[in-house]
Specification:
The complex is a heterodimer of chains A (about 900) and B (about 200). With about 900 residues, chain A is mostly helical. Among the domains of chain A are: about 60 residues; about 90 residues, Phosphorylase Kinase, domain 1 (2-Layer Sandwich), CATH 3.30.200; about 210 residues, Orthogonal Bundle (Transferase(Phosphotransferase), domain 1), CATH 1.10.510.10. Chain A contains 41 helices and 9 strands. In chain A, the strands form 2 sheets. In chain A, strands 1-2-3-4-6-5 form a 6-stranded antiparallel β-sheet. In chain A, strands 7-8-9 form a 3-stranded antiparallel β-sheet. In chain A, β5 and β6 form a beta hairpin. About 10% of the residues of chain A have low confidence. Chain B is globular, with a radius of gyration of 18 Å. Chain B contains 8 helices and no strands. Chain B has about 200 residues and is an all-alpha fold. Chain B has one domain. Chain B starts with 5 loop residues before the first helix and ends in a 14-residue tail after the last helix. Classes of the chains: A mainly alpha (about 900), B mainly alpha (about 200). At the A-B interface, α1, α3, α4 and β2 of A face α2, α3, α4, α5 and α6 of B.
């Protein structure tokens, strides 16, 4: 017994004894017995008082502290709203059209995330499109300094959402001030910010909203790490007409350092816009004050951003700022004067072209300063900088050259195309000559042999081109519109869909104002292709139809441009699974092109039609058309040409799926040969064919060869494609299945998991590809006997397949049966039984009799019944399974069923 | 979370394995909430959840009736009372954090139906004071917990604690007196020491 409890026992005894006495005698009695201990006396007195004046709490029980409805809320908290695999927690941020929530995974994976979703009522087509675009941008960004995209999809109400890495920490500015970091320490962290922004610029992504609250520092075991948040929010906000609202509320502009002059002027932002914001951030980090302000009204802020030159940071130093940087006022002024002043003010120049061209250049100067090298900041035109940039990186990579060549090639193509058009030859020749001149001017100084930082250079060139359309080509709207089209197409080829859209929409608008229906149709067609790529098939069809109408009224009925429009309409309808209309459009295109001189376009249309028929399950027809397309391509291009390789791969896949494995193998090998010869061993198309050939070898149980194919395909894809590219996931998934069959469980798990992560990020949760990978992983766990891990994955897979293909589809039913089996293995037989009863009859009806799938269903259900001791019911199922497996030569499966039958007599 | 064998854990608890409480508690906690949710769904209107009823139902649901005796039942009701205390105190803490943090209120607790504010501050003060009481007498704190949070009768509490009913009544009276003093305005609730200097 401790002192406390001893004492308490004594207090309690005295209390009870006192209660036994008349109330008016208690005090005197107590004082007498406690003579030696006034503490105890006071304590017992308090108890007597408490006994007299009972707290109202004890009039009832705990429920009485609550109103009935609140008690309900307390006892039965509604589980957080479920969004995909996530459960939403509190809201951690909100913007004009979206909100961000903390979330946790609803399943066994322990993971937190920030979920961004569109507010109800804000889901206009335009907002949805921007939202999807933002997600695509995030999917491309994989950098430790950027909050990662984890996945996304549709919530229960069908509104899109996506999940990002949840960053816990504080804004960089607050972090530096809280810890009183020195200028040097601040520069180290600022350099990290520049690295992340430079990475984004290389991916052709401009953040556009780099205010301090979007630049976070989070503590990690390896020390503080910088994270950029809210990529693309500004983009989403500024292009859906929300700018006006924002300006009114001052939501963004009240932070003077974060809006660049061109943003206030409503001009398209570029990498230089981010440089401006970085300049503002650096300014604050160095001297503790924003460049312009503080304390300005909204109008004053706008004017200041446009007109006022910020003072040198060294002139803004206060004693407080010096203290927070662990130094004296005079020392801080000396530290900032010179290089750091110049770097800040260069980044903050009003004219985008006089700033650093990119975050990489700003970073380079910060590093030079830290290494005591002379900084490069000085008045210079962007063109000068571009030239110097390219010279500096002469050792570079092929990519820049490729991008530059793509632009030039497009320009030449455009020139030729324009020149060929009737009746307007002269005007157009002039236009195209000016276009070429403009491009040459733009690329002057850009060395096509230069390679490193190549995407950056390409981005810079395009951004610069886009900027200069307005100034250099003023008064020449036809040329401007043509340039917007060209640049838009290049952005599209580079996968920068947002930028592409800006230019293409402008091109369409300008040309329709100019009243040139055929030119408008051309721009509309390019925009329609873009919309198809961004998944907006409906508007894509509408634009193609508008182009088709314009061409029909201006051109002869068999003009190849009409066929092109029809084929494009067919492709978009195909995406929408509107097969009848798509087939009609394709067939009309084929009819126009048949016998025309445009043999290659004709062959491509045949390919498209073959693909559609394949999807409709009309395999023989599909193969026949594909053969015709292939023959024409061989005739037009010769036997060794990439177009021939494309046709060969299509045929190979069809033959493969039809079970004509030898012919498929031959077609794959030919395609691979051509790819290797013409594209080189590092091209993604080559890797795709390797991958597909690998799956054929896998089906032939030639595991070693299959592994070699997959390995090479993966290496090529990883080198050639962005880290989160779905093509990478395809091969990872193939390896997952291969390793499963080879018994290499760990390798299989690793590959499946990476494939699932990529596919979730790219497609959202509700997609066949995600189900394929989760299902594959589940079956792997089953094989390894880890039913506890398998069960939730089966559940997830069934949900996905039910959503995508329908709950009565064969695959959803098959996985429901596998799920039931997993429940059975876990001893949850009642759930298993219910699920079996629901799924088995439908699955057996849907799976072709005697197929491996029907055998699997019968085997799993038969095994369940046998395990439950219901042998009479089990036997017919097991026998049906045995028959199916025996006919397919699946000896292991036959043996397993035989063992079951032996124990069940 | 795998379902623990609550029945087995209860006999471990009786055998003196204190860790058994930690093993049972999370499960009982979740079960109470599930039961509450289920009841709310079942009722159309005019419902009120009853803490005591929930505690007893959780027992019927979780413990295999063929393998327990009356003492295990009492033990279980004791654990369930502790779970009930945790649930309501956690709720009160969240409410306080929302009020003080000024941040976004979790959507879960946005509820238009809630008319009057819960006396969450009193609840939290009681929770804290109970810890002070437990330092003096663990058993008395359990008595309060079972009576106030679990809604148990004195007879059930006596069974759970393995003492007589008069003992429970004595414990209850002194505990109530001490808590009333601590929780009254002049009682220094912070250090849980009545009277003071």
């Amino acid at each position: 017994m401790s002192d406390v409890t001893d004492r308490w026992a004594r207090v309690q005894t005295l209390f009870e004894q006192a209660l036994g006495r008349p109330p008016d005698e208690r005090s005197a009695w107590l004082r007498a017995v406690c003579g030696d201990d006034p503490e105890v006396y006071r304590e017992v007195e308090s108890l007597l008082e408490g006994d007299e004046n009972q707290h109202t709490l004890f009039d009832g029980r705990v429920a009485d502290l609550f109103a009935p409805a609140e008690l309900d809320a307390a006892l039965a908290p509604r589980p957080g709203e479920r969004v995909g695999p996530w459960i939403l927690g509190e809201r951690i941020g909100a913007g004009g059209m979206g909100a961000v929530y903390r979330a946790e995974r609803a399943d066994d994976f322990e993971q937190t995330a920030a979920i961004k979703r569109i507010k109800p009522g804000m889901d206009s087509e335009a907002v949805l499109a921007r939202f999807r675009a933002e997600r695509q941008i995030l999917a491309r960004l994989d950098h430790p300094g950027v909050a990662r995209l984890l996945g996304g999809g549709l919530d229960l109400e069908g509104r899109p959402y996506f999940a990002m890495e949840l960053v816990e920490g504080e804004p960089l500015t607050a972090h530096c001030d809280r810890l009183g970091l020195s200028v040097d320490d601040r520069l180290v962290l600022f350099a990290r910010v520049c690295e992340a922004v430079a990475y984004a610029h290389r991916q052709l992504v401009v953040h556009r909203d780099l205010k301090p609250s979007n630049v976070f520092v989070t503590e990690t075991p390896d020390g503080p790490r910088v994270k950029l948040l809210d990529f693309g929010i500004a983009k989403v906000l500024s292009e859906d007409g929300a700018d006006a609202r924002l300006t009114q509320t001052g939501h963004r502009l009240l932070t003077p350092a974060s809006a660049a002059p061109e943003q206030i002027r409503g001009e398209p932002p570029t990498t230089a816009t981010d440089v401006y914001a970085l300049g503002g951030l650096l300014y604050y980090l160095l001297c503790g004050a924003p460049p312009l302000g503080p304390g300005l009204s909204l109008l004053e802020v706008e004017r200041a951003v446009l007109e006022a030159e910020p003072g040198r940071p060294s002139a803004r130093v206060t004693p407080e700022a010096a203290r927070l940087r662990g130094t004296t006022e005079a020392a801080l002024v000396r530290r900032l004067r010179g290089d750091l002043d110049t770097i800040c003010l260069t980044a903050l120049r009003k004219e985008p072209e006089r700033r650093y061209g990119s975050a990489a250049e700003l970073l380079a100067d910060v590093r030079r300063h830290r290494a005591d090298l002379p900084v490069e900041a000085r008045p210079a035109t962007t063109r000068y900088r571009l030239g110097r940039f390219v010279r500096r990186h002469r050792a570079g990579v092929l990519g820049t050259a490729a991008a530059v060549l793509a632009i030039v090639a497009l320009a030449s193509f455009y020139t030729v195309r324009l020149a060929a058009e009737r009746d307007r030859a002269e005007t157009e020749a002039a236009t195209s000559a000016q276009t070429v001149e403009f491009l040459q001017d733009l690329f002057e100084g850009a060395d096509p042999d230069a390679s490193r930082g190549l995407a950056l250079t390409a981005a810079e060139l395009l951004a610069e081109g886009g900027r200069r359309i307005r100034s250099d080509l003023a008064g020449q709207p036809a040329v401007q519109a043509a340039m917007h089209l060209t640049i838009g197409k290049v952005y599209q080829d580079l996968g920068a869909y947002d930028s592409s859209r800006v230019h293409l929409e402008r091109s369409v608008a300008m040309r329709s104002r100019l009243g040139d229906p055929l030119a408008t149709a051309e721009s509309q067609t390019a925009l329609a292709f873009l919309l198809r790529r961004t998944g907006e098939a409906e508007p894509s069809v509408a634009l193609h139809r508008a182009a088709l109408a314009a061409r029909r009224s201006a051109l002869p009925p068999d003009d190849p441009l009409i066929a092109e429009a029809l084929a494009s309409i067919g492709a978009s309808l195909h995406d929408l699974s509107r097969f009848d209309e798509a087939e009609a459009a394709y067939r009309e295109a084929v009819a126009i092109l048949e016998g025309s001189a445009h043999r290659e376009v004709y062959a491509q249309s045949l390919d498209n039609l073959a693909g559609l028929l394949y999807d409709r399950g009309r395999f023989e027809e599909s193969l026949a058309l594909g053969d015709r397309g292939l023959a024409i391509k061989e005739e037009v291009y010769g036997p060794v040409h990439t177009a021939v390789a494309v046709a060969l791969s299509g045929q190979a896949v069809a033959l493969h799926d039809l079970g004509r494995l030898e012919e498929a193998g031959a077609a794959y090998r030919r395609a691979i040969e051509i790819d290797r010869e013409l594209l080189g061993g590092d091209h993604p198309d080559y890797a795709i064919d390797l991958n597909n050939y690998g799956t054929l070898l896998y089906d032939l149980r030639d595991y070693d060869e299959a592994e070699a194919m997959f390995d090479e395909a993966l290496a090529v894809k990883r080198a050639a494609l962005a880290p989160g590219h779905p093509q990478v996931a395809t091969t990872l998934k193939s390896l997952g299945f291969l390793y499963t069959d080879m018994g290499r469980t760990e390798d299989a798990v690793r590959n499946f998991r990476e494939a699932i992560a990529i596919r979730r990020a790219v497609y959202g949760d509700e997609h066949m590809g995600v189900a394929e990978a989760t299902g594959g992983l589940a079956r792997l766990y089953t094989k390894a006997g880890d039913h506890a891990r398998a069960e939730p994955l089966y559940r997830e897979t069934v949900a996905t397949l039910s959503a995508v293909l329908g709950p009565e589809s064969l695959y959803a039913l098959l996985y429901r049966v596998r799920h039931a089996d997993a429940l059975h293995q876990l001893g949850r037989d009642r759930e298993a039984e219910a699920l079996f009863a629901q799924a088995v009859p439908a699955a057996l009806a849907a799976a072709p009799e005697g197929s491996e799938n029907s055998g699997t269903v019968a085997r799993l259900y038969g095994r369940f019944l046998a395990d439950r001791g219901r042998c009479a019911a089990a036997r017919p199922h097991l026998q049906a399974a045995r028959q199916a497996f025996a006919a397919l030569d699946l000896a292991d499966d036959v043996a397993e069923v035989d063992r079951r039958l032996a124990t069940c007599r | 979370m795998p379902v623990p064998d609550v029945t087995q854990l209860l006999s471990d608890l009786r055998a003196g394995d204190a860790d058994a409480v930690d093993a049972i508690l999370p499960h009982v906690y979740g079960e109470l909430q599930d039961l509450a949710r289920r009841q709310l769904r079942g009722e159309r209107d005019g419902h009120t959840l009853d803490t005591a009823a929930l505690v007893h139902e959780a027992y019927l649901k979780l413990v295999r009736q063929d393998r327990v005796d009356w003492q295990s039942r009492a033990h279980f009701l004791g654990v369930a009372s502790l779970a009930m205390r945790r649930i309501l105190v956690n709720y009160a803490r969240k409410r306080r954090a929302e009020k003080r943090g000024g941040g976004e209120v979790a959507a879960t607790y946005h509820d238009g139906e809630i008319g009057k504010e819960a006396k969450t501050e009193e609840l939290l003060a009681l929770d804290e004071a109970l810890d002070g009481l437990a330092a003096r007498s663990e058993r008395q704190a359990r008595v309060v917990e079972m009576w106030f949070f679990g809604g148990l009768t004195h007879a059930e509490i006596a069974e759970a604690l393995g003492v007589s009913e008069p003992t429970v009544r004595r414990d209850w009276r002194v505990a109530r007196a001490w808590l009333s003093h601590v929780l009254s305005d002049d009682g220094p609730a912070s250090d849980g020491k009545p009277g003071g200097a």
